[in-house]
Specification:
The structure holds 2 protein chains of 2 kinds. Chain A is built from 6 helices and 4 strands, in the order ββββαααααα. By secondary structure, chain A is mostly helical. In chain A, the strands form 2 sheets. A two-stranded antiparallel ribbon of chain A has the order 1-2. In chain A, strands 3-4 form a two-stranded antiparallel sheet. Chain A starts with a strand and ends with a helix. Chain B is of the alpha+beta class. In chain B, the strands form 3 sheets. In chain B, strands 1-2-3-4-7 form a 5-stranded mixed barrel. In chain B, strand 1 and strand 2 form a beta hairpin. The longest helix of chain B is centred in the N-terminal third of the chain and has 16 residues. Classes of the chains: A mainly alpha, B alpha+beta. The interface between A and B is medium-sized, with 16 and 20 residues. Strand 3 of chain A pairs parallel with strand 6 of chain B.
Chain lengths: 166, 163
């Protein structure tokens, strides 16, 4: 039994799933599900299709180089069965998967770091520039404190905040 | 999808009864070209199917006359009776000869025992004699393991790539 990788999306194909297409030059394409298969038939390049691993790796969205990937290289020589070896491998697989998942989530977190501050800046600017969408300019002149409502009446505040966010 | 299933069932039913299968085959091709997103219905190898010949026995193209075993038609690994339509000038087999052949590549997906499916790019066969031994000396292109179960071990040994 061997767990293959889908040619299009790079997810694992478990036994009993998917379609294998053998081209006449003897290149085998494995697909995990009909979505990938249909995209292949449409001649789409997986490096350009946003949801595939190939695109994500190419555009730096996901981790590319890591030591945890070395463990999963394809080996063609069958190993002689050794109970201890099998047991240790199973334990190791669990640990490696956990380590890899942690590292990947860290990578994504690092990538998304500057977001919050950028969002706050954008919102502040919008508040400044588009306040006329929320309150008419006459009422603004009458009472300048209308720009940043503090906790006055709870119902009012919530609806105003919603409008601000829009 | 329901429409294509009906179409597939209807086609194979008709193929068994009458001999206007080449017309229907052409029709399914045309429908596929019109709507790129619809799946091209791949069916059995029946009377009238043109197959490529994947060995060096002399024949180039062959037309199926009869699928032995199988009401609806031949699949991957089955034997067929065929008529040679196109032959290379100096081969053992001549044009118009009636030969037996084993299907080594079929565009129709074939279920494997582990649950997955395999399909090839084209329909191809290897000419055999009545005992099941290949006439040619070489086999071109990939062949499936299904031949092992069907006892076509000689063909497997001549193959350059086993899918």
């Amino acid at each position: 039994m061997r767990l293959e990788k889908c040619w299009f999306c790079s997810s694992t194909v478990y036994p009993g799933h998917g379609i294998q297409f053998v081209r006449n030059d003897a290149k085998i394409f494995r697909f995990c599900r009909s979505k990938c298969h249909k995209n292949f038939k449409m001649k789409r390049n997986p490096r350009k299709v946003k949801w595939t691993k190939a695109y994500r790796r190419l555009h730096g969205k996901d981790m590319t180089q890591d030591t945890t990937f070395e463990f999963e290289r394809k080996r063609n020589r069958p190993e002689r069965y050794d109970r201890n070896l099998a047991e240790n491998t199973l334990k190791a697989i669990k640990k490696i998967v956990k380590v890899r998942a942690d590292r990947e989530s860290n990578h994504i977190k690092n990538r998304m770091k500057g977001n919050k501050s950028a969002e706050r800046k954008r919102d502040a600017k919008e508040l400044e520039q588009s306040i006329h969408m929320v309150k008419a300019p006459l009422t603004l002149e009458k009472d300048p404190s209308y720009t940043l409502p503090k906790i006055q009446e709870k119902v009012h505040l919530r609806s105003e905040e919603n409008r601000m966010e829009e | 999808m329901a429409a294509s299933k009906w179409f597939r069932a209807g086609r194979s039913f008709l193929g068994g009864l009458s001999s206007n299968s080449p017309g229907l085959l052409r029709m399914s091709r045309e429908i596929a070209f019109c709507d790129l997103l619809s799946q091209q219905t791949r069916t059995f190898i029946q009377m009238g199917t043109n197959l490529k010949v994947a060995d060096n026995s002399g024949a180039k193209r062959v037309k199926c006359i009869q699928a032995l075993k199988g009401k609806k038609g031949a699949r991957l690994g089955d034997t067929i009776v065929a008529s040679v339509k196109e032959a290379a000038p100096g081969g053992t087999v001549k044009k118009g000869a009636v030969v037996y052949a084993v299907v080594v590549r079929a565009a129709m997906p074939r279920g494997r025992c582990d649950g997955s499916e395999v399909k090839f790019d084209d329909n191809a066969c290897v000419l055999v004699n009545k005992q099941g031994e290949p006439i040619g000396k070489r086999v071109h292109g990939p062949v499936p393991h299904e031949l092992r179960k069907k006892k076509h071990i000689k063909i497997l040994s001549l193959a350059e790539h086993i899918a």
